[in-house]
Batch of 3 targets.
Target 1
Amino acid sequence: MGIYFDFVDKVRFEGPGSKNPFAFKFYDRDRAVLGKTMREHLPFALAWWHSLVNSGTDMFGAATADKSFGAVPGTMEHACARVDAGFEFMQKLGIEYFCFHDVDLVPEDDDINVTNARLDRITDYISKKMKSTGIKCLWGTANMFSNPHFMNGAGSTNSAAVYCFAAAQVKKALDCTVKLGGRGYVFWGGREGYETLLNTDIQFELENIAALMKMAVVYGRSIGFTGDFYIEPKPKEPMKHQYDFDAATAAAFLRYYGLEKDFKLNIEANHATLAGHTFQHELRIAAINGMLGSIDANQGDTLLGWDTDHFPFDVYEATMCLYEVLKAGGLTGGFNFDAKNRRPSCTPEDLFHGFILGMDTFALGLLKAAEIIEDGRVDTFLKKRYASFESGIGARIRRGEITLEELAAEAAKLKEPPPPGSGCQEYLESIINSILFR
Ligand code: XLS
Ligand code: CA
Ligand code: CA
C-alpha cells in the first residue's frame, strides 16, 4: 500500500487554541459528554463518492482535483488504489465508517455480469482492509440514477426491463452491504420523480417503487441483513419533483405501503433546506415517527437552489441537530459526510480540511447541545407552555376521555379563554446564543 497523504501523520485533538491546520480543535474522541464518548455519539462516515471519486467536474468545467491515486482511471487497479487511499485517509482522521454506492467501488461495465464480478473482487479487498484497520461500513446503496437507462427512473421507470436492472443492482448492492457488515441500506430516490404529469402515472410509479422496496426487504432479510433500510428524502434535483419530498412524505409513504417496520429515514441537512424546512425540523419529524435512523451531515447554501453538499460549518445548525439526536436517544446509523470540497479546493490537503471542519463542527454542536439540555431553561419553558394539558379538562383531552359536546360546554362556561401566554421566542433564542458564545 502506497502512502497517499504523506503530509500528515495522524490528525489529533489539540484544542480550540490550536493553529495547526491538521489538528482537531473540538473533536476530542474520548471526551465524555452526557455519559458517552464523543466517538460513540458521533459515528462519522466517509462518503466514497465525494471523497474518493468526485474530482470537481461540474456542468461548466472539467476536473480540478486529481483522484487517480497513481492509477489509470477506469481500471480495477484504480479501484484498489482508491481503497488504499480511502483507508489511509480514514485511519489518519480516525473516521470509523464509510458509505458507498455500487458504482463508486468499481468501474461499471456495459454487461452487468462483469460489473458484479468486479464488485466481488473489490469487496474481498475491502473486507481485508476492514479486518486489519477495524474500520466498518455504515451503509451501502445502489446508484440507480447515473446510467442513461435509468433516465425515466429505476423503481418508477416505465420499462419493465429497466425495472429488472434496478432490482439486480439493489440485490447486488445488498449482497455487498451484507458482506461488508453494513449497518444500513439506503434508498435515495435518484430519478424517482417526474417532470410533467402529461407523461406520468404517479400512483403506478409509487406502487412499483414500494414493490421494489418490499422485495429488497424480503431478500435482505433472507441473506442475513439485520440493519435498517433507509429512505433519504429530497424534494427535487435531479427531477423537478422527487417522490420522497421530505421526512413527512417519506414516513407517510412507508406507512401506507406497510414498510415502516423495516425502514427508517436518512436525513440530509442540504435536502431539508431544499424542501423549505430546517434540518432540525426534518430530524424532529423523523424522530416523532420513530424513524430517525441516520444523518447525511452536510450543509447547503440558502442563496442557491440546489444541492451543494458543503462540508458543514454552521455551528448553530449542528447544535440543533445534536439537540434533536440527543433528545431522540441517538442514532441507529451515523453521521455520513455526504459533502464535497468546493471546486477550487482541489488538493489532498483540502480533503483533510473539509473533514476536520465537519468533524469539529459536529463535535462543537454536540458540546453545545449537551449544554442546552443541562442548562434546562429551554426544556422547562417547553413543558410549562403546555401545562394546561396536565390536569383538569386538559388532561382529559390528552387521555382521549372527552367529547366535543363537553368541550363546547366548557367554552360556554368560560365565555372567553384566558390568554394562552407568550411564546417567548426572543428570550429562548437569546438563551441559545448565550450558550453558543460563552
Ligand atoms: C444525492 C444524495 C445521494 C445519496 C446516496 O443528492 O445525497 O448522494 O446520499 O445516493
Ligand atoms: Ca445524501
Ligand atoms: Ca445531497
Target 2
Amino acid sequence: MTLKVLSQDPGPIGVFDSGYGGLTVLRELRKQLPQYDYLYLGDNARAPYGTRSFDVVYRYTRQAVAYLFQQGCQLVILACNTASAKALRTIQQNDLPQWDAQRRVLGVIRPTAEAVGLLTQTGHVGILATSGTILSQSYELEIQKLHPRLKVVGQACPLWATLVENFETDSPGAEYFVGKDLHSLLSQDALIDTVILGCTHYPLLLPLLEKLTPKDIRLINQGKYVSLSLQDYLQRHPEMERRCTKHGSCRYLTTESPSVFDATASHFMDAHIESRHTDLNTD
Ligand code: DGL
C-alpha cells in the first residue's frame, strides 16, 4: 500500500479503535492532556475485530492508520488491544519505514503491562480481553518481559464488545455473559487481586463489572495508564511533541452512519458529539 505525499506539518493525535471502545481511552487523554488536538476514528461498520483473523485485523488497522496519516496525524494511538496485539508490530516494522519513518504508532498493551507490576499485591493477575488478544498471548509476553515474577491467566470474552457496540451494557443478557466469563477467569487462580480490562470496550461495562467482581479485586481501566504513558513519551520525544497541534479540539470519524455513532458516542462521552462518515477499504 503506497500513500500520497504526506504533509510534514504538525497535526492532531490520531486515536483509532474498531468502534466505541477507544472513546474510553480518548476520554482519559482529553482529561490528562487537554492541550492537544485529537482525531478519533471508529471502524464501527466492521466492528468487532476481536474474533477476526490476524490478517484481517492487520489489513483493517493498516488502512485506518494510513487514513489518519493522510488526515495529517503525525502520531497515532491504537486505542484497541486487538489491533495492538495483531497489527502494531507489523505496522511499526514494515509499513512505517515505507510510509514515513518520522511518524509513530503506539499501542495500549505495553503501558498497561508496565502499570500492572505496581498495582498487584499478590503477584497474580487476570486478563479479560477479546479472543484475538487472548490467543495472541501479547499480555503474557509483555508482562513476562517487564515483571517476570507475576503469574498471569487470561479469559476470552467473545461477546462483550458486541454487547457494547449494541448498547447492551446493563441488560440481563449482558449480566449473564459478563458474569460467566468473569467467573471463568477468577476460578483459574484464587490469588488474583488485579484484573486488566484488556479491551477498551470493557470500561463501558464497568458498572456491571463492579457489581459482579469481589470487592478485594482491583479492575484496571487502561485509559489512565495509556494517558500517563503518552505524557511520558511526549516528554522524552520533544521532536514528536512539536509535531502535535495544540488547540484542545477533538474531531470524530466513523465508518458507520454518523447519526448512529453520534447518539451512542455522546452517551459514552457525556458530551455532544458530531462525527463525519469515512470509508477505509482503500487497498
Ligand atoms: N476495543 C477493542 C480492543 O481493545 C476491540 C474490540 C473488538 O472490536 O472486538 O480489543
Target 3
Amino acid sequence: MKREVSRELVYRSRQPDNLEGPRQVFDASVTPVEAFFVRNHFDVPEIDAESWRLSVEGNVERPRELGVAELDDFEHQTVRATIECAGNSRAHLGERAQGVPWRDRAIGTAEWGGVPLREVLDEVGLGDEVVELIFVGADRGTLETNDGGQLEMSYARSLPRPKATAEEVLIATHMNGEPLEADHGFPARLVVPGWYGMASVKWLSRIIAVDQRFDGYFQTEDYATWVPEHDLVVRRPVGPMAVKSHIGFPIDGQSITAGEAVVLRGYAWGGRGNIEAVEVSVDGGKSYEPADLAGTNHPFAWRAWEYEWVVPDEPGERILCSRARTGDGEVQPDHHDWRRGAYIVNAVRPVKVVITGE
Ligand code: MTE
C-alpha cells in the first residue's frame, strides 16, 4: 500500500510497516488519527467497501454475510478506549527483548464507533457449546514458525465467549468520528476495550464460533506467555492490559530550572477496573506521594494525572517515577517479569531530568 506517512509517526520497522506515535501522544486525552501508532504483521490489504463482506459462521443457528449496508442497519455505539500494543515499552528491556522495538508510544486512545459485537452474535444465535469466537483479518502473509517452517496465514485471534459478548466490544467502523483509515482496519475492525491491541483484529473478514479453545499462531507462538497453572506450566494467550502509567511531562533528559514550580503530568491505564490512584516519586522511587487524578473517568480509557513539584534548588540529575493502582488493587511493579517475555512491559519507568541553575 502507498502510505502518506504523517510526519508525526516514527517508523520502527518496514514491510510490514510499524509506526510509533510522537511525544505529543501524551498531550491529549483523545489521540488524533495521524498520531495513532500502527501495528501491522502483513501488508495492508486493499479492500473495496462495496464488495467487502464479513462472514459470521461456525456453530451459529443463522450464519450471515454482512456488508457495509447491513452493518449500518444495526444500532451504533461509541466507546472511548485506549489501545496499547502488548510489546509497548520493550525497547527499554535491552537486547534480550525480541520483536518490534517499541519505546513507549505504541499506544493511543480513540472514540471508536460501530456495532456492538453482541448484537451481531445475538442475531446469528450462538450454539450452547460455543466457548470462543475467532476473528480473522483480510491480511495474509508468510511467517516462519519456531520449528523453521514457512507458513502462509491470515492474522487471526480469538476471544472467550464472555468477553466477546460483553457490551463494550465493538465491530468498529469509525475512529474519532471518521471512517477508519486503511492502516487502522477499513472498513471494519474489532475493538476490544481493556485488552492489549493484538485482540482488536483489523480488516475483519470472518467471525467463527467454535466449541474448543483456538490455538492459532497469534496466540500460541506470538502474543502468548507461559503461565503456572495447577502445578503445570501452560501456554496462554496474552489478554487484558496490566496496570501502567507514563510521565508525559517532563520527558527523559529534559532540563528544568532550579526552584521553579512545575506540574508533572501523564496518563495511567489498566484493563481491569478503573485507575484508583497514581503516585509520583521525585527521588528515584525511594518515596512516593499521591498525584491528582484529572479529567473524567472513562472505564476503558487512560486517566490523566498531575503532580505539582517545586524543583529543588540544587542543580544536578533527578529521577522521577510514576506508579498507578487500579480499583482491584493491582499495582504497577518495580521490575519487569521476564516470564512474560517481551510482552506486558508495565514496570515503573524512571525519567531522568537535569536541574539547571536559574
Ligand atoms: N489485525 C490484523 N488483521 N492484522 C494485524 O497485524 N495487529 C494487531 C491488531 N490487529 C493486527 C491486527 C496488533 S498487534 C495491534 S497492537 C493492533 O492491531 C494495532 O492497531 P492499530 O494499527 O490500529 O494501532
